[in-house]
Amino acid sequence: MSAVFAIRPIDARSYAPHDLHTTPRAWGESNCYIDVWIELLSALGCDPVACLPFVVRLDWEADQFTFFKPPLEDLHDLYGVEVQELTPYRGILKNAEEQLRAGRVVLTESDAFYLPDTAGTDYRTQHTKTTIGIQELDVGARRLGYFHNAGYHELRDADFVGLFRLDAPPDPAFMPLFAELVRVDRVAKLEAPALEARSIALLRKHLARRPQTNPIVRFEKRFGDDLARLRGEGIEAYHQYAFATIRQLGAAFELAAVYLRWLAGRGERELEPSIEAFDAISLTCKSLILKAARAVTSNKPVDLAPMLHELESQWAAGVLHLARRFGA
Fold it and tell me: Does 21 lie in the same domain as 103?
């Protein structure tokens, strides 16, 4: 059986990631879902930076910051991409093969234990859920080409068998992982002025839906109690907590600053105050995530309040300036 692919055959060895994943950044990878979309849109010949306005809506969701994902309606408005949930009723491998043959990319939750691009973190060391974009599949050769994190990758043989549970005995208790199909047959590559105008319209929409109170103030109210609890649970529990909280905050506003620089490079003015504030949030989070880790492991008192207050003031300055600038 020959290989099937959704877009075109891609050589993982020569694949060039998008600039967002090659230019030095505080957070080289943001989260698995937005990172997949950055590379997928780039492979389609679209500019993924235009879809970033949604990050300004990041909020404190009771015990974590928003796991920020591009809204599907934004992807359709900007690029003509359509996303639907995939029902893997035949098993993800068979359904993915059928969808690729029809020219659809398949986004699916998967186990990073079998993903070679996570070498040094999860690969063959721990089972962690992450999202990949299946683009090419050769069942006979047991080979998979997929978007993940900062690029496009390939896995084979034993990793293929493990990822798709080919050697696992039937287990009626196993729940299929969530998957989506991405229709790319109606991709619309707008000219730069039209893309910018449509992106700004989305920015206004998301600013109008921004948090009505400072989310970092709400985060600070429980941060001290969280650290006290994590001292008893250990550093691994802290890493999971930090990913859901401080990392999401820092990575989101780094992308917000990237987006505003993109607008500034196209003639939009008076964005510098927000760019500076969002850069400050990103860098402060980078320091906070390390200092909080030391607080968890050392059990010594540490005053993180100044850093949290800096985050609060920068959020207020940056988001409110942007809302005034775009009339939201």
Answer: yes
Angle between helices 272-298 and 215-233 (to 10 degrees): 20
Per-residue pLDDT reduced to its tens digit, 238-284: 999 999 999 999 999 999 999 999 999 999 999 999 999 999 999 99
Domain contains 135: yes
**Residues 79 and 41: beta-carbon distance below 8 Å:** yes
Say yes or no: 199 and 308 in one domain. yes
- The count of domains in the chain is 2
Q: Is residue 166 part of a domain?
A: yes
CB 84 within 8 A of CB 205: no
Taking alpha carbons only, the member of 320, 81, 49 closest to residue 202 is 49
Full residue range of the structural domain in which residue 308 is found: 192-325
pTM tops 0.90, yes or no = yes
Specify the pairing of strand 151-156 against strand 143-148. antiparallel
Examine the domain organization and report whether 14 and 146 are in the same domain: yes
- Could you read off the pLDDT of 45-62 as tens digits, one per residue? 999 999 999 999 999 999
SS3 253: helix
Using a pLDDT cut of 90, give the percent of the chain over it.
Answer: 93
